[in-house]
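Marked as duplicate of an earlier ticket. Keeping the data here for the record.
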Amino acid sequence: LPSGEEATFTVERRAIAVIPASGKMLEDHIGYITIDNFDAGCAAAVRSIAEELQDQGADALLFDVRNNPGGLKTELTELLDYLLPEGIIFHTVNYAGTEEVVRSDGDCVDLPMAVLVNASSYSAAEYFACALQEYGVGTVVGQKTYGKGYYQVGLNLSDGSAVNLSIGKYYTPNGLSLIDVGVTPDVELELEEEQERLLASHRLDPEEDPQLQAALDVLMK
């Protein structure tokens, strides 16, 4: 509108449904699943996509958690339970010394897997990649992850503000903390600055994505 002019619009106010994952079939029957976060609904969404890709003939699964900020422990462990065989998949220890161990049952996805990570893979995204790596079912490709391993509780204050307090630590299936360490990929490869920019805006073509192509090479061996 020209400066100084006003206009009236009618808008509908409603909740926005955020889809935490998407998927498609790549060359050589490799199912590619991007996980944007581990917020509510993530595990069910990824499972549905993975099963649809397997129905379409996927012989391997490639998960992309680059630029994934993490999310809910419950979503992470539900997804790991679906993918991994029986055993410990995650555990926490709070500052009072109370430990919680999460285990997977014997049902699992029996396909070769790989995970794409970068320096902005954070929290649950890191533990997802590390769990597949430690179980020996997933090859991790990309850059070393951020290295978060504390979990928090949010407290609302009387003035309307809030504070998050760290109250414990996360550990991988093998009992390792990723604090200030992160996950070291099995295949380390960086993107160029322009490629990182395109990736962040979901506009990096798979053919122009060297990390994705390296993961495909691993899965096609």
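See parent ticket for discussion. The chain has a mean pLDDT of 95.
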